[in-house]
Give the backbone structure.
Amino acid sequence: MTSHTRSSRFFASPFAVASSLAIAVSAGNAVAGGFEKATLWDAQYSALAGAAVSSVDDSSAIFFNPAGMAFAESNDIALHVSPTFTTTNGPAAGDNTFIDGETNFSPAGGFTGLFKLNDKFTMGYGVYAAGGAASKYEDVTVGDSSNPIGGLWPGSSPVTGDYSTEIRVIEAGLGLSYRINNNWAVGGTYRLTYATADINMLATKDSPFGKVGASVGYNDMSGLNTFGVRLGAMYRSDDNRWGWGINYRSEVDIEADGDYNYRDGTGATVKGDATAKTGLPMQISTGVDYQVAPDWTLFGEITYSEYSNNEQIKFESDDVGLAVPAINSNWEDQYNYRIAAEYTGIENWALRAGYIYTTAVVPEEYAAPTFSTPANAHSFTFGAGTTILDGQVDLDFAADYNMAENDSVKGGGKLSDASTSHPGKYESNAYAIHASVKYKF
């Protein structure tokens, strides 16, 4: 640890400043809220607005609903790529400021596989993106450059740096499904969850010496949770014209270890190790699909995520006195409402489109520039799929666009004992391109 301070009176101030700095350690996707984007990496089901729980019948079922593996007609392996671009804009420099954030690239994707053990049991496996966040404001200056530090030290009090959050949640799954009869199946997935994070924050604090700028970083952070499950059930009608499914995801605790650093406009610095603690919440999805005409199928699904359990983001260190022992996030539960349609009237092609309405996770009172936007989000999806090599290879493509905006966030909530949420305008958008290749054997 390195610690440089000029007086005991000012040393207390950096700790108060920093209490507003790490508010985004568990910031979720900039648009959809929480840790999760409304659509992820499978191109077929991304085009269908993620409404997969009642119909998925390939190796992607290890994620969407492990019961669906039992309805697979063949073994398969699949590669999924989903480059995603996210932009967040908001009051990164203080109350009622507005800064356009950088466009961030996230290389989401996954690899999945499925093997039919016999007529009753099917095994699946995969490694894939399960969530994350990306937001960045470059060269933000906080603090008052006109204020020397009360004549006690030379120089001024502002700090310039990047205000950013990058979080990635990756999951490895091993699943097994059982087909009870022609109509019913159940299944489960054992999950390993790995998270990484890099967070760099800036804030301004009133002090006896003026408005002092400060920054804190939580960098190179990572952690592994070794137990989580997904449990599912699925029903398909005798004529396969309609189906119903439900998928349960257990909550997992996320504990990430890494480096902590603090600096401010007086030259004070603090460095050391730190641990951040939060969680990926319990989630339940249920939905139906129905073939309304020979070439048309409609899909509907509701996903509930218990983000209200994320009341605080906690920090610990064995070798430094951290400025931020806890951040009050006070997130709210999230609902995703998904509708989609598929048209198969063109030979060897399927055309798909969908829409998702996502309720806000972050309350206006606790908004922050690298939290999810405190507003309901809208997602629009479309895509197509075809088969080649006599039906042995499936090719699927999709794109989606997500947006959320709130022009008059009041803020004011106590993010910690010494900091409040910035009022102002918050907005975000994201778009992704999805491609999946599945080989059946």
Remarks:
- The chain has three helices and 23 strands.
- Residues 182 and 238 are 7 Å apart (CA to CA).
- Confidence is low (pLDDT under 50) at residues 1-30, 150-155.
